[in-house]
Write a structure and sequence with these properties.
Helices cover 44% and strands 19% of the residues. The protein is of the alpha+beta class and 426 residues long. It has three domains: 168 residues, Porin chaperone SurA, peptide-binding domain (Triger factor/SurA peptide-binding fold, Orthogonal Bundle); 103 residues, Chitinase A, domain 3; 96 residues, Chitinase A, domain 3. The strands form three sheets. A four-stranded antiparallel beta sheet has the order 4-3-6-5, covered by helices on one side. The chain has a four-stranded antiparallel beta sheet with strand order 8-7-10-9. A three-stranded antiparallel beta sheet has the order 2-1-11. Helix 4 crosses helix 6. The protein starts with 10 loop residues before the first helix and ends with a strand.
Length: 426
């Protein structure tokens, strides 16, 4: 669903995260629909009203999905855009039927391993009506159809485009970045306050101010250094971070990135192109040792002790001897398979190094991570496809380039619609 204000987190993570806040979210109050002024307009877009009820419902939905922005502000922006998109659909002769909407709802829910009925029931417990979810999906489908109808025929991908993309993704054009990080844990009780603080930090443009916030709030081992990380190639960062980081100018900070029980922010301090190609990693081997107690002093002291007596992943077997097998996990995964919080923590590590800023079990278990090793990608055999690419990989790359171009056209069109619209806010 293309939008100028996208949710910057995976839908799977958002939907899985939905279940915890619902346990403490206020129940919906049907009688609110009759409250005075609830159906009064808060915005009119070319005469089409957005009611207070719609605004509150969308904001509640975004909050349950842990949108990394102020829910009310984001809801207002999305609903204004929804009115513009609906108007554009009429102008371009685009419609979506009930079958398409139902399929869209199923696809959205399935990314959290839920059925539509389960998704609707969970949202209802959090105070969100089924119609709100349906309209959220419908707006995305309408805009997808509008952009395909209006701009699809204009999007093409040349072999030169593919070559540039191959060079960028293979590390042929080296890029390294100098980042600072802040990762703030939260509980269900203080989640709203932590996310509000994270939004404030995301507006910072001073490296000194960001480092001061890191020293005060960050839970990572880099906090004493003001969250400052050393130079690292962009290919060493987890997939979720690369597009966010490459979109920053020096001094800028990412939007808050929701993790499991925490929120992360990254500031760009500097970026450089290098002559040496960066390695591209196909697999990462790491070990996770689970320590009860979360971020308690005893658990952190135990993690520091384990760090002091181990040099390799093999050493962790002696540490875990006599304990249940579940306290130690070791395996090899592709970068895309690793959870975002673990991938971010691992990106700082060289083989044999550890970190212990990730938790599980709602913060009750501290996870000591050790990097065992990284495997670099092996070039495809000659003749596998165009310029060594397998045919399906070439098609996937072409689709990604086309999608980015289509999104760029769509964003420009939406901005044009907004600039020409008569928007009255009450």
């Amino acid at each position: 669903m293309t939008s100028s204000t996208p949710l910057k987190t995976t839908l799977r993570g958002a939907l899985l995260a939905l279940m915890l806040p619902l346990a403490v979210a206020p129940a919906a109050l049907p009688q609110m629909a009759a409250a005075q002024g609830l159906f009064d307009p808060v915005v009119k877009v070319n005469g089409a009203a957005v009611t207070r009820y719609e605004l509150e419902q969308r904001a509640t939905l975004l909050k349950l999905l842990r949108a990394p922005a102020d829910p009310i502000k984001l809801a207002r922006e999305q609903l204004i855009e929804d009115r513009l998109k609906a108007e554009a659909a009429i102008a371009n002769g685009v419609t979506v039927d009930e079958t398409m909407i139902r399929a869209g709802m199923e696809q959205f829910a399935s990314q959290g391993n839920l059925s539509v009925e389960q998704m609707v029931a969970l949202l209802a417990r959090g105070g969100v009506a089924e119609e709100t979810f349906r309209e959220f999906v419908r707006a995305g489908l309408i805009w997808r159809e509008v952009t395909q109808t209006r701009f699809g025929p204009r999007v093409s991908v040349s072999e030169e485009d593919l070559e540039r993309a191959r060079a960028a993704t293979s590390g042929a054009a080296g890029v390294r970045v100098l980042l600072s990080e802040i990762i703030i844990p939260f509980t269900p009780q203080n989640e709203a306050q932590v996310l509000a603080k994270a939004r404030q930090i995301s507006e910072i443009t001073s490296t000194g101010a960001f480092s001061a916030q890191a020293q005060q709030f960050s839970a990572t081992q880099t906090r004493d250094a003001g969250g400052r990380l050393p130079w690292q190639p962009i290919t060493k960062l987890p997939p979720v971070l690369r597009p966010l980081v490459l979109g920053l100018a020096p001094g800028e900070v990412t939007d808050p990135l929701p993790l499991d029980g925490a929120v992360a922010l990254f500031q760009m301090r500097d970026i450089q192109e290098t002559q040496t190609p960066d390695p591209v990693y196909s697999a990462i081997e790491y070990a996770a040792y689970y320590i009860p107690g979360g971020r308690s002093p005893d658990a952190l002291a135990r993690a520091a002790q384990v760090d002091a007596i181990t040099d390799t992943c093999d050493d962790l077997y002696a540490v875990a001897k006599g304990q249940p097998p579940s306290v130690l996990e070791r395996g090899t995964k592709s970068p895309a398979e690793i959870p975002d919080d673990i991938a971010i923590s691992l990106s700082r590590l060289d083989p044999g190094e550890v970190s212990y800023d990730v938790t599980r079990a709602n913060g009750q278990t501290l996870v000591l991570l050790m990097m065992c090793g990284r495997s670099q990608s092996v070039a495809e055999a000659p003749g596998a496809g165009a310029d060594g690419d397998a045919p399906d990989e070439t098609a996937q790359l072409s689709q990604q380039i086309a999608s980015r171009r289509l999104e760029s056209f769509a964003s420009g069109y939406l901005e044009q619609l907004r600039s020409e619209a008569r928007i009255i806010e009450y």
